[in-house]
Amino acid sequence: MSLFRRGDVWWYEFWFSGRRIQESTKSASKTVAKSAEQRRRRELAEGFNSFEDVRHERVRTVNEIATDFLTSYKLRNPQSAVFATYAVRHLQRLLGDRMMVEVSEQTVRDYQDQRLRENASPKTVNDEVGILLRIMDDAGNLLPFA
């Protein structure tokens, strides 16, 4: 626990998952500052470890989530929707029946190997993996490719 003052306001600083967290408590009370730091640590840990109940998202298939992603992506990025459609088609073909919880580092490596055997260029495969990581959202951040 690292509390310090800047003027009349208490701040906290700590490391979480390799990142430095430094935030103001917006309070002049040291007791309130300690409580704020503990609350923030707990909030980060719960989000990082998926304590909140999002099981329904993790059991959805890549196919379902990719379809939702592509619909939203086309609205926001109409110029690059052609490649996204192309990439999602390959992702759905090779990974579509898997649940999101099943997608791991090895799954991504197997996908890359399969696409390279199909003579896709390495850049294309990397771009497709980038789309997959976007589709996976926070779960994609846990994979070492991100």
Written account of the structure:
- The protein is α+β, with helices and mostly antiparallel strands.
- It is built from seven helices and three strands, in the order E-E-E-H-H-H-H-H-H-H.
- It folds into two domains: 3-52, no CATH class; 56-141.
- 58% of the residues lie in helices and 12% in strands.
- A three-stranded antiparallel beta sheet has the order 1-2-3, with helices on one face.
- Helix 4 (81-95) packs across helix 6 (122-136) and helix 5 runs antiparallel to helix 6 (122-136).
- The longest helix is centred in the first third of the chain and has 19 residues, at 30-48.
- 18% of the residues are buried.
Largest sheet: 3 strands, antiparallel
**Rg of Cα set:** 21 Å
Q: Mean pLDDT, rounded to whole units?
A: 82
Which structural class is indicated by helix and strand composition?
alpha+beta
Runs in which pLDDT lies below 50 for 5 or more consecutive residues are none
Number of DSSP strand runs:
3
Enumerate how many helices there are, as a single number.
7
Count of spatially separate domains: 2
Identify the strand order in the major beta sheet. Answer: 1-2-3
- Amount of helix: 55-70%
Dominant shape: elongated
Q: Estimate the strand proportion.
A: 5-15%
Question: What distance lies between the first and last C-alpha atoms, to the nearest angstrom?
Answer: 30 Å
Order of helices and strands: EEEHHHHHHH
